[in-house]
Fold this protein.
Amino acid sequence: MSGHCKYSCETATETLEWIKAIVDFLKPFTFLINAHVVNFFTDRLWEAVDKDWIDCLRRESIENLLLIPSGVVQDHWPDTLKEFVLTLRSLVFPRKQANLQTVFPGMQVISLNSVLAQGMNQKKRHEVEVLSAVVSAIANNVRAHTIVDVGAGQGYLAQVVSFQYQHSVVAIDACSHHGKVTESRAERIRKHYAAQMRKFGPVNKSLNVPKTITCRVMSKDMLKALTSLSLDRNDVEQPKLIVQNDRELDGRKLQSPYNADSETSLVLAGLHACGDLSVTMLKTFTECEEVKAVVSIGCCYNLLSEEGSDIAGSLCGFPMSYGVKSADFSLRKNSRDLACQSAERWRILERDAGVHNFELHAFRAAFQMVLCEYYPEAIITSPSVGRQGKALRRQQQRRILGLHLHCEESMRVCFVQKDPDIACSSSEPAESKLDDRSVAVLDVTAVSHRNSFNNSTRSESSDAVDKYLLFGKFCHSGLCRLGLKALDTPNFYGIWDEVEPFVDIIGPYWSLRAALGPLLETFILLDRLLFLQEQGSSMEAVMLPIFDPVLSPRNLAIIAKRK
C-alpha cells in the first residue's frame, strides 16, 4: 500500500489485520465517535477529551485546525496529541486517485460532450466520466452482456455507458420520477446521436438506449429476472418496467422467455448507491452466478442498518464480514454519519469558511440548550433543523450586496436598544420573519462579524451584539423549521452568555472528531472488502480510489469479479 499507510488489504489475512488495528485504536475514543455535537454544551462534551489537548488546540489557528483531519501536526503540541493524529492517519486508506490506466491497461477516460453532460455539475461529470470508463473496461474484460446501474438516479451513468461505450444497460431506481427523467433524457440524447448518424448517410446501425426499471427491492431473484430483459443490440425500443414487490417480479420472471440454460452475464455498477443498497449489490454478486463483476461506490453510511437492531444479522448492512462480526465492535448512527467527513474538503477550506462552519456548530449546540429549557418535549424526538449552513452560504452569494445596508441597520437598532431580548423580540410570528430575506440577513451578519473579527477598532460590546443577533436569527429559524411556536420573551441572550466561554472549544473538538471520519469509512469499507475475500478463491476483489478526492470525497470503489 503506497503513501502514509503501512497496512495492506491484498488478502483476507492482511485485511483482517488492518481491521483489528483500527478497532484497537478506536475503542478508547468511542466517546468521541459516538458523540452528537448538538449536545456539546448540554453534556459538556469537551470534558471527556484530554485537557492538555483542549487547552492547546483552543489557542490554535483556524487554519491549523482545518489540517488536523489530513494528519498535519504542530511541533508545540503535546506528544500524546501528535501521536493520536499521526497514528490515526497511518490507519486510513489512501485517497489519492489511482493511476487507472495502470490498473486497467488500455482504458481511456473520455471527456463527455455537451449533450451527455447536460445537467451535470463538475463533481458529477468527473464521477461519470471516470466510472463509465472503468465499468466499460470491466464489462469488456468479463465479456458481460448487460450492465445494471443500481440506484441510477437520473440515469447519467447508464446513459454514458450506453451511448458512448455502446453497452446494453439497465437502469434501476426506486423512484418512479427518476425513471421518467432517465427515459426523457435518454430520448433527447438518442435523437441527437441519430441526427449525427444521418449526416453521414443511410446507416443500418442502431443505438443502445438504457432500459429503466423502477424497483425498490434488490435481490438475487430480481437480477435473475433482469437477465430476461436484456435486449438484442439491434433493438432500438426502450422498455420500461415498474416492479412493486418481489412477488410481482417473480411472476414476471416465470412468464419471461428467458432460457435458464443460456449463457448470460451481468456487471453491477453503483455510483454512490445509498446505505444498504451498496451492501445488497455485493451480496447479490456473491449469490448470483450471472453477475460476473461488481463496481460499488458507497455513501450515506448513516443509513446503514446495523447488527443488533431489529433487523436480522444476515440482512443488516454492517457488519458484513465474519472478521468484523467477531471483533465485537459496533458503530452507532453518529459514528457512521461521521464516516462521511472528508479530510480533503477540510484542507481546502479557507479561514472564513472554517470560522463560519464552527460558528454554525456552536449555534446549533446552543440552540439545543434553548430546546432543553423551553421545549423539553421536542428533545425526545431527536429534532433535526436541517442543513441551515449550506442554505445560508448559497443565499449569501446571491444577496450580500443588496442586504448589506439592511443588516447594518439591524445591528445598530439592536445595539441602541441595549436590551437584546427587546431588540430581537417582535409581535410577528416566527414564520413571517423567516423568509429568504431574513435568512440571508443572518448570513450577511455572519460575514460582517467575521470581517470584523480582527478589527481592533470594534468594541467588545458591539462584537457581543453581533453574535447575539446571529444566534437569535438562528433560533427563530430553527423553531420555525421544527414547527414550534415562538416564545414571547425568549432569553436567547442569557443562554448565549452561558455558553460563550466555551464556544472557542467547538472548533478543536469538531476537528478531532472529523479526523476520525476517514478512519471510520476505511473500517466500513474494509469490512465489505473482507466479506468478498472470505468467499474464497473463486473471485478476486480490490478497493481502489478512482476519483479525485477533492472533487468527490466518496472516491473508494470496491471492485470484484469472478475468476
In short: The CA atoms of residues 420 and 500 lie 15 Å apart.
